[in-house]
Amino acid sequence: MKVAIAGGTGLTGRHVAEALTGAGHEVVVLARGRGVDLLTGAGLDAALPGVDVTVDVSNVTTMKREVAVGFFERAGRNLVDAAARAGVRHHVVLSIVGIDRVRTGYYEGKLRQEQVVRDGGVPWSVLRATQFHEFAGQLLERLPGPIAVVPAMKVQPVAVREVAEALAALAVGEPRGMAGDLAGPRVESLVGMARRLIAAGGARRRPVMPLWVPGPMGRGGLLPTGPGPRGTETFDEWLTARRYADR
Questions:
Q1: d(CA 208, CA 148)
Q2: Taking the CB of residue 199, how many other CB atoms lie within 10 A of it?
Q3: What's the angle, vertex CA 19, arms to CA 155 and CA 244, rounded to 5?
């Protein structure tokens, strides 16, 4: 099977490519460095002939609604339209658990991406996953100053490798629509994750101050609400495997 991965050079995309290649499938990476621009559509038609499945794990780093919505709508529409022209039989997209409850700017963009997929002309599957184990570190990197003010919220982090394996399994199967919520094995405090990451040497050493969060986000809005697939690697196991303390 020939599978094209949008965002195939990123954190998730590299793992998806590895899982599919290891299973004997042919992988095409859609990225600007490979001559494909999702925002303009340049290079898409040339990259998709013979492709059976497209997997979209492309991303934009922003919290601004207009930027997120603009990116996911334009990139998603260009990819779906090109996939339809190429006769792709299945389009798979990675989304996020809770985006219909926690309506931040970035999550509004992901909701628009899901709508583009539903309205497109290619049979589809959407996998919603919880935050990755890397989430605490990514948050700390964006927080300046001598004190890290971290939202006092609950998350259920999952290993990106396990998400990628789930996406790869979806890609080689039949379209499923909304494929369910994939989460990690354990509910964690984001504040606690940040403190343990700092203590392990994985982020700049400084005090962590909890910040009360109003609304659905502070009430567990990013947690799965029903049964679904669960990863096995805990945050502490992931942290130990990183061996920050030895660096």
A1: 5
A2: 14
A3: 50
What is the pLDDT at residue 244?
A: 57
Domain that holds residue 29: 2-246
pLDDT band of residue 227 (cuts 50, 70, 90) is confident
Task: Sheet containing 90-96: give its strands across.
Answer: 26-30, 2-6, 53-56, 90-96, 124-129, 177-182
Q: Residue 105: how many CB atoms within 10 A of its CB? A: 14
Res. 247: pLDDT tops 80: no
Number of domains in the chain: 1
Sign, Cα dihedral of 241, 244, 246, 247: positive
What pLDDT was estimated at residue 47? 97
Helix residue spans in the chain (DSSP H): 11-22, 44-47, 65-86, 105-119, 135-141, 160-171, 190-199, 215-218, 235-242
Pair 124, 90: CB distance under 8 Å: yes
| pLDDT at residue 246, as a whole number | 47
Supply the angle between the helices 65-86 and 105-119 in degrees, to the nearest 10.
20
Residue 9 has pLDDT above 90, yes or no: yes
158-179 residue pLDDT tens: 999 999 999 999 999 999 999 9
Give the residue-averaged pLDDT of 28-45.
96
For the domain that residue 110 is a member of, what is the CATH number?
A: 3.40.50.720
Residue 56 neighbours by CB distance under 10 Å: 29
